[in-house]
């Protein structure tokens, strides 16, 4: 690998670090003072995606990969909440990704662009599961915020629950409605 492509690839990796500092801004609308970061959301989405993929009988590694890269564009355009999308026109995630990886090694650029394009436009079972993972993570986060006293998170819980498609995501969402975030500690850490 030549120095220019190595530097371009590292530049992309450094840019991804901004996801650890960027907040999921939709939660501010619900009154959450210090919402989760985009990276925190993406990490749990990838884990949820892997679990859902195992339950649905599709490729967990592929789903985790799709989930990992699904919000990486937010380093450039931010996390635009659903209400903001009514007033703003942002570049497509595919276009933002192309700009992000423009100086990276060609194999890196092509690979990341393909992942993002598949997430955004694909209809494979893995893509459906990845989208459900994104919604289920939002729902779980909303339930956690409800427990912390943020009553306005209920709208996020209900609206994301209603958009789930796979039987496994629906079953996990139903189970989550009746389980506190601390229950796993009482149950599994005896």
UniProtKB/TrEMBL annotation:
Cofactor(s) of this protein: Mn(2+); Co(2+)
Gene3D superfamilies: Hypothetical protein af1432 (1.10.3210.10)
Highest taxon in the source lineage: Bacteria
Gene Ontology annotations for the cellular component aspect, listed alphabetically: cytoplasm
Pfam families: HD_3
Catalytic activity: a 2'-deoxyribonucleoside 5'-phosphate + H2O = a 2'-deoxyribonucleoside + phosphate
Key words, A-Z: Hydrolase, Metal-binding
InterPro entries (alphabetical): HD/PDEase_dom (IPR003607), HD_domain (IPR006674), YfbR/HDDC2 (IPR039356)
Residue ranges constituting the HD/PDEase domain according to the UniProt record: 34-148
UniProt key word Metal-binding: yes
Keyword Cell wall biogenesis/degradation: no
GO molecular function annotations of the record: 5'-deoxynucleotidase activity; metal ion binding
EC assignment: 3.1.3.89
Assembly mode: Homodimer.
UniProt name for this protein: 5'-deoxynucleotidase
């Amino acid at each position: 690998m030549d120095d220019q492509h190595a530097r371009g690839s590292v530049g992309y990796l450094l840019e991804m670090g901004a996801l650890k500092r960027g907040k999921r801004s939709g939660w501010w609308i619900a009154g959450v003072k210090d919402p989760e970061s985009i990276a925190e959301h993406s990490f749990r989405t990838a884990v949820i995606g892997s679990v859902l993929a195992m339950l649905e009988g599709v490729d967990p590694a592929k789903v985790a990969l799709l989930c990992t890269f699904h919000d990486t564009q937010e380093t450039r355009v931010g996390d635009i909440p659903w209400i903001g999308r009514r007033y703003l026109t942002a570049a497509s995630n595919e276009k933002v990704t192309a700009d992000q990886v423009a100086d990276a090694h060609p194999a890196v650029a092509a690979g990341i662009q393909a992942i993002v394009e598949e997430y955004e436009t694909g209809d494979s079972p893995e893509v459906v599961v990845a989208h459900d993972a994104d919604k289920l993570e939002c729902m779980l986060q909303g339930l956690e915020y409800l427990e912390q006293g943020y009553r306005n998170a209920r709208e996020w819980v209900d609206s994301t629950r209603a958009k789930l498609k796979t039987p496994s995501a629906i079953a996990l969402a139903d189970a989550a409605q009746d389980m506190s975030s601390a229950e796993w500690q009482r149950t599994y850490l005896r």
